Amino acid sequence: MKDQLEIIMNESQRQPKWYHNLKYLMVGLFFGVLFVKAEVISWFRIQEMFRLQTFHMYGIIGSAVVVGMISVWLIKRFRITTISGEQITFTDKKFNKGQIYGGLMFGLGWGLTGACPGPLFAQIGIGATVVIVTLISAIAGTWVYGRFKDHLPH
């Protein structure tokens, strides 16, 4: 009976052993090193981008968008499944004016701090400990949104 329940159970509902999470640590370290080497976490590169002085960051962001588009197309075209065999689905999302406000606030914060959520940990990892203030602010902003999302324009 237990074997039958395990077959029916969704992969995401299983509680893996602690060492199964090491793969996420390794991927995180890999991307952290990649971000540092590509200068994605450089405050100066981010400022150059917002001042329209260099193409460096636009090239990185643009290539990530292209890779994402190709990946989604391939997943849909060949009906690729997860490792555990589950179908990958995409759902359409409706546009609303709150996305514009959120995008403007995100961009303003990114321009002022020189950091977006992805590279925050890599910036802290290289010793830019002042970024901890940005990390705490990002966590606080996420909490505030979660607390008041029912009262915001969606």
Automatic annotation (TrEMBL):
Transmembrane segments: 21-43, 55-75, 100-120, 126-146
InterPro entries recorded: DUF6691
Name this protein carries in UniProt: YeeE/YedE family protein
Transmembrane among keywords: yes
Pfam families in UniProt: DUF6691
Domain of life: Bacteria
Organism: Dyadobacter chenhuakuii
Keyword Transmembrane: yes
UniProt KW keywords: Membrane, Transmembrane, Transmembrane helix
